[in-house]
Amino acid sequence: MSPRRHQGVSTRLGARVRLRLLLAVAVGLLPALGAVAPAQAADSAQAHRPRLAVAFPHTMVRGKSAAVRVRESTARRHRLLRVSYRPSGGGTWRLAATARETKRGKARIRFALPATGSYLVRVDLARYRQGQRTVRARKVYDTVKAVPVVAPAVIAHRGGAFEAPENTMAAFSRAIADGAQVLETDIHQTSDGTLVVMHDPTLRRATDAEQVLAPGEADKPIWQVPYSEVAQVSVDVGPGPAQPVPRLSDLLTLLQQHPATRLLIEAKDTTQQPNLMETMLAQLTAAGIDTSRSGRAVIQSFDVNHLQTFAAAHPAVAVSPILQQDVTDPRTYSWAVSITLQTPWASAAQIAAIHAAGLRVEVWLVETLPGLAAYADAGADGIITDAPAAALAMYR
Known about the structure:
single chain; alpha/beta; Immunoglobulin-like; TIM Barrel; 2 domains; 8-stranded parallel β-barrel; 30% helix; phosphoric diester hydrolase activity
């Protein structure tokens, strides 16, 4: 055998030996490989498990679309996505929009919310198959607030009676600090001519007069009580420490310090106090508070006839009748700048009819979150509420 041929046989034998050695090593490692393979497969499955990253529009205008942006860490091309919503307080889920991912696992889904309020919004993947198994939809949730198309003015009823003692300087100051655009209040006149801020015709309900004043004084009409007695009592209805009964002059001084704040001021019991509106107007004018139709103060009353007579004598002064009825012909109130309408009659159609006659609409008294949302969406220009902070939080 030649040296060259011997060398070729040796090479082939060496290759066979090496192959056998590699096979033996492989066979010996099979048990270990069998133990490792499931773990590696699990790690791989975890790494490729689809994950959603969702950016929600946390505030949007009701009825106007906004976008949810979706991105998956592992792209599954053209997968169907859904956006659903329900009120935050509970209710039925409603489908808002659907879309498919792009080739890069992204989607931009536009949807709209039907009414003002707080909603829980959900983004989920439609069912799909991964290998030999069906994977359920992945879900991501967040809270989204829908605000009115045009936010109504928030009018703090008695200064915000849910947040401080009603019709007190503490209530008015807090409402201004919270951002209420308008203060609503009530005025009576004492027997000696002082205008005081008080809703009721007597001091019994809202103050400690029964404990502080002589027997029977708490039940006297305010127009028969001197201011010296009113000054002795404190308002103890509402949260927080009891507060003195303010005079109208005290409230007007506060308004002078906050020129952006407006006033909706009610003349009470005008049958018993026939000159009350005139006296109120004199004090407003003396304090430099603009009472014109485009000004800061509006005088309102349940006594529509008396208010209309007052408006005829002062046609440039802004007035608003308080109504608890259907307004069949709003044009008959053209002498007013607005109508203060109680909630049972404040439908969207009624508000639209009043607007068509050139009048604003303030709705009273709205105390619940659904009500705050509904009357804003109905088109009210102002919402009179004991909870101004809650209304402001909803509308902003």
